[in-house]
């Protein structure tokens, strides 16, 4: 446990930041999971409609420092059509993206 006043204050601030960062991280993971699920089910139109919310979650997570900006650019945002690159002849879609969370 912290002893000095400044250490106690830093602990309180750290707990508050943890709550916000966890919320942002969960929002990012939830939206990407939804899109991955839609892609796996072959619902390309619905997944395309959800892409702006995914990009918004990625940008907010990068802005808050939950993920690094280069990870957001490279893994999640590179080539906005990267989500839908390969559709096989059987109608299945390969999911070609991942997001690194710190």
Structure description:
By secondary structure, the chain is mainly alpha-helical. The protein has a single domain (5-84), classed as Methane Monooxygenase Hydroxylase, Chain G, domain 1, CATH 1.20.58. The chain is 66% helix and 0% strand. The chain has three helices and no strands. The chain has helices at 5-41, 44-64, 69-77. The longest helix has 37 residues, at 5-41. The model is unreliable at 86-90 (pLDDT under 50).
Count of all domains: 1
Q: Largest sheet at a glance? A: none
What is the highest CATH level, the class? Answer: Mainly Alpha
Q: Report the β-strand fraction as a percent range.
A: under 5%
Kindly report how far apart the N and C termini lie: 25 Å
Q: How many DSSP helices?
A: 3
Number of strands: 0
Sketch the topology as an H/E string, one letter per element: HHH
Q: By helix and strand content, what is the structural category?
A: mainly alpha
What form results from the Cα inertia axes?
A: elongated
- Backbone CA Rg: 18 Å
How much helix, percentage-wise, in residues?
55-70%
């Amino acid at each position: 446990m912290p002893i000095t006043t400044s250490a106690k204050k830093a602990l309180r601030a750290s707990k508050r930041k943890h709550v916000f960062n966890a919320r942002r991280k969960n929002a990012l993971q939830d939206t990407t999971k939804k899109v991955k699920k839609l892609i796996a089910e072959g619902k390309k139109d619905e997944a395309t409609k959800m892409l702006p919310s995914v990009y918004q979650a990625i940008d907010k997570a990068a802005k808050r420092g939950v993920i690094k900006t280069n990870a957001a650019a490279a893994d999640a945002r590179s080539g906005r059509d990267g989500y839908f690159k390969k559709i096989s002849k059987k109608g299945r879609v390969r999911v070609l993206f991942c997001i690194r969370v710190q």
